[in-house]
Design goal:
The protein has 429 residues and is mainly alpha-helical. Helix content is 47%, strand content 10%.
């Protein structure tokens, strides 16, 4: 056995979990061998606000508590051997070892986060089939379907502090690398289907690099650069538990949290966690939009609530579907799609001038020539009358000839002195 792997195994055998989380964002694990505590950052999804999750459209419309649940607040204790045996029985390709770090995260899910688990079990009915289809296409382990549990708590609109977005928490650059469109109007990182297929491609590419699934999901969390640095610091050992001390604090908890998520989503009944009941949504399909379209236009003429439209199409950042840039998919209930097709032209034209206010062209007011502008200005100011100064003329003489005053002439012409030049034109009215 590799000496570093042996050391890692011995080290983790000495860990015991703290009784409670240090706070809502960290857990503490005690190393009995070194008589010291290690603080591990929780994945951000484990700190998600449950009220916010329950406020999601699908939760409000299609999820509701199981009122028949028995002892929903009682979490029975189990020996380490039980956890070890249960993890071994999970039908998985990926390695899911047990240690006290994993136990700490199981305790989080089965204790403090048990109501969130009930929500995710219910929401999983909507999203897990999508995940499984993409993973299966790329021949990836289906247990990866629980990666979004620790990435986003199954919230398609989740946004991390670092700017990662969606169920799979794609950063902007990574999302674009995997063909997810992101601009001011569209963010396909929030699209459950497109993001799932992009995530499957990304995971497949990472496996080609590491050939180890625990390293793959570690790299998914903190990036290949940080994993490669940790491998280098561990003298080239390519094992998650060996490079564990050299990883960022959140990533140290990421793989244990993933193992714990697989455990709790499999053995929730043993911990008296009752999934929220699901009322399956009506069937949906997509239509292609080839012109700019406002959600209000669709809602009004197809008889669908705008909130429902946004929930079915979370990739659209605003109310505008930018079909003019390139054809865009609009997901709708199947019975509403026929209404859209039948009234397509009417939908596009409905209140278009009011709702789609971006101008395609705009007239530019051309400036007038300077000479013309001066003539008009002089005409407005002088009333159309000017005179030419004769040799020997004075302001007094000009004022007398034009029945006005010297003071008025000075004011009309902005003069500070009485000096005149022959041929000069001055205003007299």
């Amino acid at each position: 056995m590799n000496i570093k792997l042996l050391f890692a195994a011995l080290a983790f055998a000495a860990f015991t979990p703290a009784a409670t989380a240090q706070n809502d964002r960290q857990v503490t694990v005690h190393d009995q061998r070194l008589a010291s505590d290690e603080v591990i950052d929780l994945p951000e999804a484990m700190t998600a606000n449950l009220d916010s999750l329950l406020d999601e459209w699908h939760a409000k419309k299609y999820l509701f508590p199981d009122t028949t649940c028995v002892d929903p607040d009682f979490n029975p204790p189990f020996a380490d051997e039980v956890y070890q045996q249960r993890l071994a029985r999970i039908p998985a390709v990926m390695e899911m070892p047990y240690n006290e770090v994993v136990r700490t995260f199981i305790d989080q899910y089965s204790g403090r986060l048990r109501r969130s688990v009930a929500y995710m079990l219910g929401a999983g009915n909507f999203y897990v089939p999508i995940f499984e289809e993409a993973l299966d296409y790329y021949d990836l382990p289906l247990e990866l379907k629980y990666l979004p549990v620790i990435e986003s708590a199954l919230d398609p609109t989740a946004t991390s502090k670092a700017g990662a977005v969606g169920l799979w928490q794609f950063m902007l650059a990574t999302g674009k690398r995997y063909d997810l469109k992101v601009n001011s109007l569209v963010d396909e990182r929030r699209d459950p289907i497109k993001a799932s297929w992009a995530a499957a491609r990304y995971l497949s590419d990472l496996y080609k690099i590491y050939n180890d699934w625990n390293l793959v999901i570690a790299a998914y969390n903190c990036g290949p650069t940080n994993v490669n640095k940790a491998i280098h610091r561990a003298d080239g050992v390519r094992d998650y538990w060996a490079i564990y001390p050299y990883l960022p604090k959140e990533t140290r908890g990421y793989v244990p949290a993933f193992i714990a998520a697989n455990y709790i989503m499999t053995y929730y009944c043993d911990h008296n966690i009752c999934p929220m009941k699901t009322k399956w949504p009506i069937a949906t399909d997509t239509v292609m939009v080839s012109r700019n379209l406002h959600m209000d236009q669709v809602a009004a003429l197809c008889g669908i609530d705008k909130e429902d439209l946004h929930a079915l199409n979370p990739q659209y950042v605003t109310d505008v579907i930018p079909g003019l840039s390139e054809p865009c998919a609009l997901r709708m209930p199947c019975d509403k799609i026929l209404a859209f097709i039948d009234a397509k032209d009417s939908v596009y034209n409905y209140r278009a001038d009011e709702l789609l206010t971006r101008r395609a062209t705009v007239a530019v007011q051309k400036p007038e020539p300077a000479a013309q502008r001066t003539t008009k200005q002089n005409s407005r100011t002088s009333g159309g009358k000017t005179v030419t100064v004769r040799p020997g003329d004075t302001l007094s003489a000009i004022a007398k000839r034009n029945r006005t005053t010297v003071a008025k002439l000075r004011r009309l012409n902005g003069m500070r002195s009485d000096r005149l030049k022959p041929g000069q034109r001055i205003r007299v009215k």
